[in-house]
Amino acid sequence: MEHLLLASIAMVVATMLFLIMFIKKEFSKSESQYPRPPPGPWRLPIIGCMHHFAGQIHFRAFRHLSLTYGPLMLVRIGQVNFAVASSREAAQEILKNQDPNFAARPELVVGQIVCYGCSDVAFSPYGPYWKQLRNIFHAELLGTEHIQSSASIREEETLNLIRDISTATQPINLSEKLRRMSNAIISRAAIGSRSKHQETLILVAREFTDVLGRVYAVDMFPSLKLLHVLSCAKFKLHRIRRRFDKIFDDIIKEHEVKAKMNKGRQVAEVKEDIIDALLRLKDESELQVPMTMDGIKAVILDMLVGGTENSSIVIEWAMSELMKNPKIMEKAQTEVMEELKGKNRIRETDVVELNYLKSIVKETLRLHPPATLIPRMCRKTCDVLGYEIEAGTRVLVNAWAINRDPQYWEEAESFRPERFESKPIDFKGGNFEYLPFGAGRRICPGMEFGLATVHLSLAQLLLYFDWKLPDGRKPRELDMSETYGLTVARKTELKLLATPRIPIPSTV
Ligand code: HEM
């Protein structure tokens, strides 16, 4: 009996020991197999990490936090987690090595309301519809052939800008003139003519890019429905959408009238723009995913807003940096003047030779990328740099911080175009320490088009004028503060005095 009791006790002890060892082994296995979430700043109840942003622009605040929490951190804002990548390695992992898993965009209320239920290119979910739109963009507007054939539009519109500036006797608002020029270029290339709604379009586009960069309670507290009602965000967004709608309806109506007049003629005979092509494809239902009228409006929105704001912002920053760095301005003016020798004007084909000017644009995009935070979303739970990123987590690649990281850039905060003369780095998304156009599947499709506008207009501004700050102000007094939007522009409009240097040609 005693033996039996001892044997039972021994059995129980052995079983318990076995169980403890098994659980311990499994536990340590689960720890090493499934990584932990990335580290992040401490949180307060309800608002999460919002207090860390007080008084700071978001991309600067994220960089500041990354100095403590590392290249990949998890920042909770309200009820939403953001994985923020702030190093070349983290960006490469997200935008290249695991690109398909991060090729989604977050579904924001702004995309739902203003971008016609996220049916544009920029907000649409990763999948066949998005792929189809990118192909149409490439085939009808942004491919190499179209960029070459739209060179005459850029040459005309940059010359119009130069003529307009040459008539001014007072300091000019260069920011405003650049927005008008960029909008005229993209409108003529995309919809066949300057939009008669240009003024309203530019105003609403500015309002839209501004709201795009804001943190809305409706997105950060998805479950607090009362807050959605109390916040006036949705009301504001619906107002923007109505104003866009009116303009886009008009553009589409004009194209439908033109299509009726051209009925019966072969496609090759008719000079089609991208809206004509979209309307034709919609009716022919040749597409894998049918195109709706809202989808067409969303595409117009991407083209007109993306094509206007980004290019003019880059030229504005380039001119600001040149005003602050007169020696660089002088060197660039000499280069353009040399290129003019034996010709009566600078054309787009001449820009290829302007290597210093192209380095100035690269350096401008390094210090002032219009899109500071590249927004993506994680589709499936995965491991990035040893940390677990859960499906549905919003991801931000802090391109602004990476472009200025002293680990990759000597004198990172200085404007030094020469650095690109010895550094074979380009925009195409293969150098993850330099991301002005993003990278991977969702890289900017308008890169070549935007650069063509930026290069040519900057060359013309430097060739035809000498520039000064008004009221005898010194270059160091120029305010360089940034706006708080999705695309980061100058906070104050750039106002300059232009003095003609050489005669302006009368025709293109
Ligand atoms: C110099 C000017 C420009 C800059 C710096 C710029 C920058 C960017 C960046 C950083 C992205 C995000 C890429 C990513 O997620 O990896 C983007 C996306 C996009 N850009 Fe641009 N852009 C410029 C010009 C343009 C132009 C001229 C157009 C159209 C005419 C355009 C249309 C778009 C669209 C539609 C997307 C969304 C792509 C997608 O989600 O698949 N951009 N751009």
Automatic annotation (TrEMBL):
Heme binds at residue 444. It holds the Pfam family p450. Belongs to the cytochrome P450 family. One of its GO terms (molecular function) is iron ion binding. Its cofactor is heme. It comes from Musa acuminata subsp. malaccensis. SUPFAM superfamilies: Cytochrome P450. InterPro entries: CYP450_71D, Cyt_P450, Cyt_P450_CS, Cyt_P450_E_grp-I, Cyt_P450_sf. This is (wild Malaysian banana) hypothetical protein. Keywords: Heme, Iron, Membrane, Metal-binding, Monooxygenase, Oxidoreductase, Transmembrane, Transmembrane helix. The chain crosses the membrane at residues 6-23.
